[in-house]
Amino acid sequence: MTTPSLEVRDLRFAYPDGHVALRGVDLTVPAGERVAVLGPNGAGKTTLVLHLNGILHATGPSTGADGSGGTVTVAGLTVDPKDRACLKEIRRRVGIVFQDPDDQLFMPTVGEDVAFGPANLGLRGDELAARVDEALAAVGMSEHRDRAPHHLSFGQRRRVAVATVLAMRPEILVLDEPSSNLDPASRRELAGILRELPVTVLMVTHDLPYALELCSRSVILDGGRIAADGPTRELLADADLLAGHRLELPFGYTVSL
Fold first, then answer.
1. If you write DSSP's letter for every residue of 182-217 in order, what string do you get?
2. How many domains does the structure of the chain reveal?
3. Number of C-alpha atoms within 13 angstroms, CB side, residue 127?
4. What CATH number did the domain enclosing 239 receive?
5. What is the pLDDT of residues 190-237, one digit of tens each?
6. pTM surpassing 0.85?
7. In this structure, is residue 196 part of a structural domain?
8. Start-to-end Cα distance in the chain
9. Could you list the residue range(s) of the whole structural domain that residue 229 is in?
10. What whole-number distance in Å separates Cα of residue 57 and Cα of residue 71?
11. What distances in angstroms separate CA 91 from CA 26, 33, 53, 163, one per listed residue?
12. Could you give the CA distance from residue 224 to residue 43 in angstroms, rounded to a whole number?
């Protein structure tokens, strides 16, 4: 059987102030699947994402003194902050695109931003240039390679942020609110790009129509637990389910089975 891209088992996490953010999350994402993570503010979505590449970490299978525990496995590798080599590889395999592209773009040119990650892996010369070309082509930004990122539109900067992650050739692409602050044309263009990417996608979003457009499966995370897991269309057609977890479709937008 093909190893899943992501396996989360009994993931529990409490912050130092005592706030419990995750209360036993179980989630399996097969390779190549696209899954939307839905839920109200404070549901634990960001905490879950930050566990996927070891920025945050549980204490292991047994419950820790702080209430944290569980395991996260990426393509067969278990996230272990004590194993630096393993953690480095997991961070290559899990590419996170944050909500604000300016959090990821800091080099003088687009090309240098996209090259930054692979260069840190030791790539040089033609191999590095090919990796940059590949990533920029995937997001339709090749012609902007020599431009300063801050001269681009917001939508273009978000596409470059995606390219910086794709240049690492990740196993999983994690997108945090990818449609936020985009005009309709940029939103549509980004959807077309994401739809064609040959990677596993985990998309955290409040944009329910975007989830329906791009992800065949969705999970609803609320109160630190998975409250629902199923076909996106089925979840979004359940008005009582959405209301129960403070999720709303745009006014006038309906989903039918």
1. --HHHHHHHHHHHHH--SEEEEE-S-HHHHHHH-SE
2. 1
3. 7
4. 3.40.50.300
5. 999 999 999 999 999 999 999 999 999 999 999 999 999 999 999 999
6. yes
7. yes
8. 31
9. 6-101+170-244
10. 9
11. 21, 19, 5, 16
12. 6
